[in-house]
Design goal:
alpha+beta; binds adenosine monophosphate; HIT family, subunit A; globular
């Protein structure tokens, strides 16, 4: 699947759509999810155009990958949830039920996340 330059997160990165920024650096943007599922619900995205974690792992530069991993801790610190914990979710592709085709990791916390997945 080709990257869609007009997906909603690409438009947020370009500043065409507003977001509630929590953290930003050269390679990474983190902002509040518009429909939070827990008290804290932030999306962490690379600024580079990557469809999903598979694309990112294969094609991102080392600098982008390092920045992305380090941003997770910085965002947790900034949100004050590093000690109490959080859950990271990266929905990927069709079976992962990914809705926005730009890599994003959900960080949820501020209260118990609950069991991981319900049995079918
Ligand atoms: P996913 O199902 O993993 O692709 O999740 C996409 C997430 O993006 C959902 O949790 C949406 O609530 C969130 N979302 C969609 N549009 C926006 C937006 N404009 N600002 C912030 N979050 C958004």
């Amino acid at each position: 699947m080709a990257y869609d330059e007009n997906n909603i997160f690409a438009r947020i990165i370009r500043g065409e759509i507003p977001c509630s920024t929590v953290y930003e650096d050269q390679h990474v943007l983190a902002f509040k999810d518009i429909q939070p599922k827990r008290r804290v619900h932030v999306l962490i995205i690379p600024k580079g155009h990557y469809l999903d974690m598979t694309d990112f792992a294969e094609n991102a530069s080392d600098a982008e990958i390092v920045a992305y991993a380090r941003a997770v801790k910085k965002v947790a610190d900034k949100l004050g949830i590093a000690e109490t914990g959080y859950r990271l979710i990266a929905n990927t592709g069709v079976d992962g039920h990914q809705e926005v085709p730009h890599l994003h990791v959900h960080m949820v916390g501020g209260e118990p996340a609950g069991p991981m997945l319900k049995n079918k």
